Structure formats: structure tokens, C-alpha cells
Input
Amino acid sequence: MNHQNLAIAIVVDKNPAEVFDAINDVRGWWTENVEGCTHNLNDEFEVRFGDVHYSKQRLIEVIPGSKIVWLVTDSNLSFIEDKTEWTNTRISFEIAVENNKTHVMFTHLGLTAAIECYDACSNAWNDYIKNSLRKLINTGKGEPTLQEQKVKTTMK
Output
């Protein structure tokens, strides 16, 4: 079985500070369905994609212009048998400059081909990183999943 963590690299023409700020704007590239803070060490935030995906992240490493690491402290993925597969995994963004370009290395440590959600989750991450995050960095506007309406809470 393949135990290599999912890793996705992108290269952009913005400086590391701009890239760092864009990554921390989780609502701007991943999903508007975020509750909590996403910028400082020990901040915690939750994301939801309907009843399909819930995860709670804590920022455990924040080095401005260089690195951000989230620890997934809780998860519920309804489409797989072990709904907590993401729990205790880490999501890392490493930022470096090379040849006047800023490189971003996204790694989801613990998301390997050996786990059930790998195919669906790696496809989703590829789209969010290569498309939405890259667009947010380059143009100031990403393509996050849009805010869900709170219809269920008002229905009886």
C-alpha cells in the first residue's frame, strides 16, 4: 500500500507575505462555511460541507511568510466507513521563494492512498489548491464552496 502523504505544489508570482495571507483566508479559497478564527497560533476553526464533511482544525504552527500547519482535532466524513479518518492528521502549507517565484507546498500528512477517503479527498484538495487558492493568491478572488443556507435550523 502507498503510505505517501498527499502533496500538491503550486508556484505563483506574489510575495510570501501575500501568499501567507491568502492561505489564512480559508473562507476565500476553501469554503465560506467556516466558524472560528484562521490566522493565529492556537486559533481553531470548523468547516462543514453539508452533512458530508465536518472537520475542526487548530493552528499549531504559524511562521509568517513561511509556514502554516493545522492539526485536525475532530472530523466526521459521512461518505466513508471510518468517519474520523481525518482526526489527528495535519495540513501543512510551506512557502518558499525560488527564482523570483513563490512556491507553496501543501501536504496533508496522514492522507495517504491507504485510507478510504484518499481518492475523493485528494481530488477535492487538488481543485481547492491548484484552482481556488491559486486564483485567490493571483487575483484576490478564489472559488470557495459557497455559504450554505441555514434552512434546516428553522424547519420543524
